[in-house]
Amino acid sequence: MKSYPTILSLCSLALLPNISFGADESPYLFGDWGGARTELADKGVSLNLFHIFDVYDDFSGAAESGGTYFGRQRVAIDLDLEKLLGWENSYIAISGVHQYGNNYNRSRFGVFTNPSSIEGTETTRLANIYFGQSLFDGQLNYQIGKVDGVGAFGSQEYGSSFMNDEFAYVANAIFGSALPFDPAQKLGLIVEYQPNGTQLYLKGGVFDSNQLDSYADDHNGLSFDWEGPVAYAAELGYRSDPDKTDKPGFVKLGFHYNTGNFANFLGTTEDDNNKLIYLSAGRTLHNFDSQQQRRIDGSITWVHAPEDRNLYADELIFVLRAIGPFAARPNDELGLGVVAAYISDDYSDASQSAGGPVAKEEYTVELSYKAAITPWFQLQPSLQAVMNPAGDTDRDTVWIAGLRSVITF
Length: 409
Prior knowledge:
Layout: H1 5-12, H2 36-43, E1 45-60, E2 68-80, H3 81-85, E3 90-101, E4 123-135, E5 140-147, H4 149-152, H5 165-168, E6 186-193, E7 200-208, E8 230-239, E9 249-258, E10 262-263, E11 270-271, E12 274-287, E13 295-304, E14 312-323, E15 333-343, H6 345-353, E16 361-374, E17 377-387, E18 398-408
């Protein structure tokens, strides 16, 4: 068994000094640029730069041992068109990313879950560009352009406390419908309607699923061609009013439908669509203070998809997190998450037919602590255990230690 500083760092953060940031402390490494940042924002232009860097390694159980890293730099520009052009409640959001590093979840670790929420394809690209507007006193909101489909329909509400993709972004099963995702966002329209006086909302979306691969023929993000097939998504949800309860919560029920052809695990035929359904609910479970800033939140998510064309038949995800777990560290976050991924029987049968192992369930547990070192710098050690990796009950548990750093420039 190997040993790494990242393992020790999860415990050593408890020794950090007491800290509470003042309101006058800048959330940016480079501050206000001598007042230029504030001046630009007052005129309607907000510019943000971020860098996330993950380093992680197994210390037991991996199919092929080896550490890796992955980094993501993002530049985001938000244009307030009401300030710039007088268009009420309108804006344009643009961001670009540069990603670098290695994707080891399947090639080295031999697991289906993804230990990092940023790990993926090495790329330098336009991530998103869309126009958004709020109408009818905020009852109707829409975005049109290159948008994040899975992020809008199925994202984890309490994901900021985690490093693993299934807790920090979306369940792996959500990707089965081939909706566009960040940072390979594609053309689409998202509309949300919430009538005044109610906490219920209805959201719908239509997207280009780009040959079922968001990166296909769009390696730099500058293609605006609609390739198809068309994918749809809908969500009905409820968000409690945080001003009327000390323990706000949410419930959302969603559906994805893709009109494309999807390969069937058993046989040579293709299914002429793919679909999935998800249900997620969560709420604040406990408040440490009367301001509700320091608290414990919990949620559960379930995803179901047809097992003849999807790796996952069902997934259950449980999340528990504490914001400000210690009075002396009110800006830190502590997260504990569990994934129960039920692998498709059809996938398992196909694996056996090809001489591979039986695939049953894969279970993932993550314990993570995000420490706010400064308002613009966070360190986040993570310890993850993947049981029955890739659904193979004959393999040992894969233990993965990771460390994430986040800098806001």
